[in-house]
Design a protein that fits this description.
The structure holds two protein chains of two kinds. By secondary structure, chain A is an alpha+beta fold. Chain A has 21 helices and 17 strands. Chain B folds into two domains: about 60 residues, no CATH class; about 350 residues, no CATH class. Classes of the chains: A alpha+beta, B mainly alpha.
């Protein structure tokens, strides 16, 4: 029929027919051309859509997607927890048309980690079930290509932690039902699921860069000292924001296994330790504030262990002479600190520690908070041992908030994991006088310049801090072999901005630490390596021409060969 | 056997049977033995056109299956959940009604088909006039009439009958020059346009005017008058923009954004999210944001799931239908057949172009279905009847034509 219609010699027909002439022939051609032009326009438009499709579809994703659960980001907007629509693979046995045995084999080919037998059992069990709880888009399209109508691919919200275990203890995790079960996920549950607010991510105080550096330094130290655990916190001394908080060993919140569950204990906020000598600056500050120490050059007897109530307080490095207050801190003398605490008295000692909230769980949003071990029967001996950090156990976070108050001019602020907008910092409350705080800045800097904290002195960063090595209490007394080595520091000491507390749990002496396992050898170097890494990120630049002025106190330190 | 067929098709087919018998010698010479009415019908039919239509219907079923879950999810309530393929099954049912309608109409001899179309034009024009009185309101427009199952959109059905009737009126001219046929058709078109703008239904108004303009073009109106019509059309559009609130709103949202523009944006996201070859059947995600995924915006859903290339193929298929009909009209002599077929194909092609253009943000209107592809019983049956008429008018006996050409060629 077509060939006939297209035969040559038909053109004259227009002349032949009376009513339909050349004009109609032309008009029909014009009409056809109009339609061709219109369809060409449509095709051109389609082609341009195909060419510029990619960037546009990307944009559409960001403008329309509201997650089922809000994102959690760090203080700079780096995502720490997000919700994506993941694929699941769901099977309805009544609708399965193909050969189940073959189907199971095909599924095994796509998911090599699961044997065909498992799939076959599910396919023949007779009730709808998940074949896979989670599948990648590539796997989904492969299963889809099997063409089995009894298999469906529901989209389910999936909580994703792109930084893995980086800040696992801070962020926490959600259970299979999508409910926050730990950390900020649990704290922010209602905020993250509020339909009105969940489009807007929640910003934490954490800086993931600082967090990464802290975690890295802690894990290096943990490996080199064969410690069983490590914990560290970087705290903004003036706002209470926790910029980094790491507890090792950590866990991967994306995939919790039995080991991960064991590692959920938060070493910064949950574990309580006798933090030892790091308490000494607090005792001295309390004594300065109370006026029981007025003259830093006053000397105390450190010639022999202090015997009291059948208990002997002795120094790790006996001085064998009378020493003044700066010397007691720089050399970490238990005997002299005990005497200063004794002069201060039980009432004022207790009051200061309660003011610093050492008798309560730390002030922070997350629920994983440890209750300090507060001395049961507080006597004269307790006052003296607490003075150098024994007989009381608190969390490293307690110590960090206390050190913040110690160096920032004397203001205590609760710590927070939520980003604090500039000029929105809480007013806090005064716990030390400004003069005491200024004095403590000098003393802490001296410990690093010329004392047990020497190994923490990173050039130009004006670090100040105090070591603390405490024996872990075990059955039948203190264990000589297991230490908790802590270094509590702040920088830069001429205008303290950040407090850093690092703790190693049961470090062993190794060649790298000259076979020493005390804080001065294992914990202080962490701070020395960490601060130059995080300082520039936090806006603290090294400057060797600036420092806190310690010239009036340095002569008080006795030097062998010196005239003092 | 033959008696049974005659009983089935009535006396009208008898003529065809007799004609077939009359050609018996020629057919046997060409090896064609089937002389039953259906055989004759099939032999005379434009089978390429029918093939293209069947291809469009098949594409339409696939597309509705792709779009159905989106609309089913949108229309599901807490108490009633629609099957994801609800609209696919319904479309299947409508195809089962529409295709026989089309084939039955295509079996009518040309005169019968014309008579049927003119009578139906009168009936649906009456219904259209009654819409403002008895019609039901959907989405702020009063376009539907009739109780429950028989609820129809008269303007959908009126379009093909309008094209045929106008062609009939215009074809009087060749016999009787005294009747002012052009003013008469202009008056009818204007009257229908007023009724439609009152509903309001801007898209259908444009289609009706487009059909009439095409008839004028092919009917041989002078170029000067056609140019005047184009200018007049532009002036009318500007006037509509200035004085007709529906047009103002449609064009405003097209140009400056707004609620309808959001729909256009959603359609844009859908059509572009599949790339050249699509994300795969059933795997589209953007379609779920799209209102009217199964009707007005089905072209976008095809773009997402099957890709831009199939969209181009669909556009070319519509063009193929148009070109096929127009090319076969080039050696047609009957003025009425030329005008009627042109009008019908203009309606079909115009509707397809407007729908695709709306999906591609090239046109400000909406409420136009993609022929044979969009979901919808009313529109599917109307288009089926329209295409049935087109098939009926383009039927021809190839041997009669051929012999005449050969004769002509021999004499010339």
């Amino acid at each position: 029929m077509n060939t006939i219609a297209a035969m040559p010699g038909r053109r004259p027909i227009t002349a032949y027919s009376g009513s339909v002439g050349t004009a109609t022939y032309q008009r029909l051609m014009i009409l056809a051309l109009i339609f061709v032009a219109a369809v060409l326009l449509i095709i051109l438009r389609l082609t341009s859509f195909a060419l510029f499709e990619e960037q546009k579809s990307f944009r559409s994703l960001s403008t329309t997607y509201v997650p089922e659960r809000g994102d959690i980001v760090d203080r700079r907007g780096v995502p720490l927890a997000r919700t994506i629509a993941a694929y699941a693979i769901w099977m309805k046995p009544d609708d399965i048309r193909g050969d189940r045995k073959q189907l199971a084999a095909d599924l095994e080919r796509i998911f090599p980690d699961e044997p065909a037998g498992v799939f076959y059992a599910k396919l023949t069990a007779g009730k709808p079930t998940y074949l896979r709880r989670r599948a990648l888009p590539r796997e989904v399209s492969e299963v889809h290509a099997l063409g089995e109508i009894g298999i469906e691919f529901p989209r389910e919200p999936e909580r994703l932690y792109p930084e893995y275990d980086l800040a696992a203890h801070v962020i926490g995790f959600t259970d299979m039902g999508g409910t926050g079960r730990m950390g900020m996920e649990r704290v922010l549950e209602s905020r993250l699921t509020d339909p009105a607010k969940r489009a807007q991510p929640v910003a934490l105080s954490i800086d993931s860069r600082v967090q990464g550096a802290l975690r890295n330094e802690l894990s290096k130290a943990m490996a080199s000292t064969h410690a069983i655990g490590a914990a560290g916190v970087v705290l903004d001394a003036n706002t209470g924001e926790i910029v980094a908080l790491s507890s090792l060993p950590s866990f991967n919140p994306n995939k919790l296994d039995a080991e991960g569950v064991r590692n959920q204990a938060n070493g910064v906020t949950q574990s309580v330790y006798e933090l030892g000598s790091t308490f000494k600056p607090i005792t001295v500050a309390a004594a300065l504030d109370a006026g029981t120490v007025r003259d830093l050059s006053r000397r105390y007897d450190a010639t022999a262990p202090l015997k009291i109530a059948g208990f002997r307080i002795h120094d790790d490095h006996p001085m064998g002479r009378w020493i003044n207050v700066p010397e007691a801190l720089v050399n970490s003398s238990n005997i002299v600190t005990a005497r200063i605490a004794d002069d201060l008295g039980q009432e004022r000692m207790e009051k200061m520690l309660r003011t610093l909230r050492f008798d309560q769980r730390p002030e922070i949003e997350i629920a994983e908070k440890g209750l300090p071990i507060w001395p049961r029967d507080w006597g004269r001996l307790t006052t003296m041992t607490v003075g150098y950090g024994h007989g009381i156990a608190v969390t490293p976070l307690h110590l960090a908030t206390a050190y913040a108050a110690l160096v920032n001019g004397g203001i205590y602020r609760p710590s927070t994991l939520l980003k604090v907008q500039p000029d929105q910092a809480p007013a806090g409350r005064r716990v030390f006088s400004a003069a005491t705080s200024a004095r403590m800045r000098q003393l802490l800097r001296m410990i690093v310049l010329d004392g047990t904290g020497r190994n923490a002195d990173a050039e130009g960063y004006r670090i100040g801090g105090k070591t603390g090595s405490a024996e872990k209490p075990s059955a039948g007394g203190y264990s000589k072999s297991s230490l908790v080595s802590t270094f509590a520091a702040a920088f830069p000491m001429d205008n303290p901005k950040y407090v850093v507390v690092v703790t190693l749990d049961e470090p062993q002496g190794t060649a790298a630490t000259s076979f020493q396992r005390t804080a001065g050898w294992v914990a202080a170097p962490i701070v020395k390596r960490l601060v130059p890494r995080i300082g520039p990120m936090l806006g603290v630049l090294p400057d060797t021409r600036r420092d806190v002025d310690v010239s009036e106190l340095m002569p008080l330190l006795w030097r062998s060969g010196g005239g003092h | 056997m033959r008696g049974a067929i005659m009983a089935e098709h009535g006396p009208k087919q008898l003529a065809g049977v007799i004609a077939a018998r009359g050609r018996a010698t020629m057919e046997s010479r060409l090896g064609r033995a089937d002389r039953s009415p259906i055989g004759v019908w099939f032999w005379e039919l434009d089978r390429v056109l029918l093939g293209l239509i069947v291809a469009l219907i098949a594409i339409g079923l696939l597309a509705v299956a792709a779009a159905s879950p989106a609309t089913a999810q949108r229309l599901s309530t807490s108490s009633q959940t629609l099957d994801p393929l609800y609209f696919f099954y319904r479309q299947l049912m409508w195809v089962a009604v529409s295709v026989p309608c089309m084939l039955l109409v295509s079996m009518l001899p040309k005169d019968e088909a014309r008579r049927f179309a003119i009578l139906a034009f009168g009936l649906f024009l009456a219904l259209l006039i009654l819409v403002p009185v008895f019609g039901s309101e959907v989405n702020g427009a009063r376009r539907w009439i009739g109780p429950g199952f028989a609820n129809v959109q008269p303007s959908e059905f009126l379009k093909p009958f309008f094209a045929v009737t106008m062609a009939w009126i215009l074809s009087w001219k060749s016999r009787e020059h005294s009747i002012p046929v052009i003013p008469l058709t202009l008056g009818i078109t204007g009257f229908i346009a007023l009724l439609l703008m009152n509903q309001p239904d801007l898209g259908q108004t444009i289609i009706f005017c487009g059909i009439w303009f095409t008839l004028m073009l092919v009917g041989g109106m002078s170029v000067r008058l056609l140019a005047a019509l184009v200018i007049g059309g532009i002036v009318l559009l500007v006037a509509a923009y200035a004085f007709y609130p529906v047009a103002t709103q449609r064009i405003d949202t097209w140009l400056f954004g707004g609620e309808t523009n959001d729909q256009i944006m959603l359609a844009y996201r859908t059509i572009t999210s599949g790339g050249l070859v699509g994300v795969g059947p059933g795997l589209g995600t953007e379609k779920f944001h799209l209102p009217e995924a199964h009707t007005d915006y089905i072209f976008s859903v095809i773009g997402e799931e099957f890709g831009i290339l199939p969209c181009i193929v669909i556009a070319l298929t519509f063009l193929a239908v148009i070109i096929r009909v127009l090319v076969r009209l080039l050696d047609e002599e009957d003025r009425f057949v030329i005008l009627a077929a042109t009008g019908l194909v203009a309606q079909f092609g115009g509707q397809a172009l407007v729908n695709m253009a709306v999906n591609l943000q090239l046109f400000p209107s909406k409420g136009m279905t993609l022929p044979f592809i969009s979901y919808g019983g009313s529109s599917l049956i109307a288009i089926g009847v329209g295409m049935g008429l087109l098939l009926a008018f383009t039927k021809r006996n190839p041997y009669l034509d051929r012999s005449r050409y050969m004769m002509k060629g021999a004499s010339g």
